[in-house]
Amino acid sequence: MSESPSQATAGGGQRRWLNGLRRSYSLIQALAVLALLIVVMQIANDRFLSPINVSNLLGQMTVMLIVAAGMTIIMISGEFDVAVGAVVGLSAAVAGWLLVRWMPVETAADQAFWVILVGLLLPLLVGPAIGVFAGTVVTKAGIPSFIVTLGTLMMARSLTLVVTQGQPIPDIPEPIRAFGQGRWVNLPLPLDFSALFETGSFAEWFIWLPIQNIVWVAVVVYAVGWFVLERTTFGKRVYAVGSNRTVAVLSGIRADRIKIYCFMIVGFTASLAGIVSVSRLGAVSPNTGEGLEFEVIAAVVIGGTSLSGGQGRILRTIIGVIIIALTRNFLNLARIEVFWQGFATGTIILAAVLLEALQRRISSRQ
Fold first, then answer.
1. Which of 24, 154, 282, 316 could form a disulfide with 303 if both were Cys (CB 3.0 to 4.6 A apart)?
2. Beta bridge partners of 286
3. What are the residues facing 229 on neighbouring strands?
């Protein structure tokens, strides 16, 4: 017995709905985890959603946010860069050396404007330069990107110690610290749930949240990243190369060049994050960026980017970064020993990989 047109239409609509649900599984999964974390953490500690804690949390996650944007792009292309943390540290060290030690002055306020300008712009070339080197070795020599970037990680970390001489670099010029530590814009956000329940007035639900200036740098990075991936030919080629390199090459795409560009992009975001770190902290530590690469990769995977390439959305990466940052922040608020934070991060990374495998299995059933 054949189906009636109405039954066929209903069946087709249901199949489309199920396929859409499967495609959105990673997003639904990440949002559910995020919502659960927020509820549990607020119940466990009523200071969690306080304006000052939310503001500080946004500032703390900015460096990871910026690096994760670049990592999303390179992972979509089918590659990895485990050197990003070391590049953040090296870029910060170069910036600190230029701003403080290159042209020593009596006080940080006396530093010349042109020295500050050079100290901000020149370190931005560190990451792309390392990216060109790593990308060329990966594409031309055929060596896996994990191995190549593991080597550049060690090189960059060593150069950081050389530049800093193993010592912190304090006294970053005041204009840079003023930007990084300032909160020039306040936003009304619905965060004061207790006031809503007590008064029943939605007007009391909103509070004025001071946003650290560096957060807007991350906003610009994600706006540009979204436009590049979703609205440009380059973005479409990144997805094509990550999905199937052979087919992409046969279609006329220069896959090696695309991958080198992706390494340059992730290197640039790492260098920019290094500058942001210097601006926020007002100093440079020889250990800046240490271990950051693993948290970034975990955040990108939690956000739905495939480990095998060709799949991912840069805006979803924000959810993954927030989940990692929330976990770390909660451990601090709960006064759990710092030694357990690495354990928590490792657990999240393992869970992210398992969930990504589950997502691939669900997608393969379509």
1. 316
2. none
3. none
3-class SS at 188? strand
Report which residue type is found at 168: P
Count of C-beta atoms within a 10 Å radius of residue 63: 29
Dig out the tokens for 263 from the structure: 């390494």
Task: Check residue 96 and give left, alpha or beta (phi > 0: left; psi -120 to 50: alpha).
Answer: alpha
Class of domain 25-364: mainly alpha
Give per-residue pLDDT as tens, 92-137: 999 999 999 887 777 767 778 898 999 999 999 999 999 999 999 9
Q: What are the pLDDT digits (tens) for 334-344?
A: 777 777 777 87
β-strands 206-211, 185-190: how paired? antiparallel
Full-model pTM: 0.86
Q: Mind giving me the DSSP string for 195-239?
A: HHHHH--GGGGEEEEEEPHHHHHHHHHHHHHHHHHHHSHHHHHHH
Q: In 3-state terms, what secondary structure has residue 253?
A: coil
- Kindly tell me if the per-residue pLDDT of 171 is higher than 70: yes
- Residue 188 φ then ψ, to 5°: -80, 120
DSSP 42-93: HHH-TTTT-HHHHHHHHHHHHHHHHHHHHHHHHHHTT---TTHHHHHHHHHH
Cα angle for residues 274, 275, 276 (degrees, 5° grid): 90
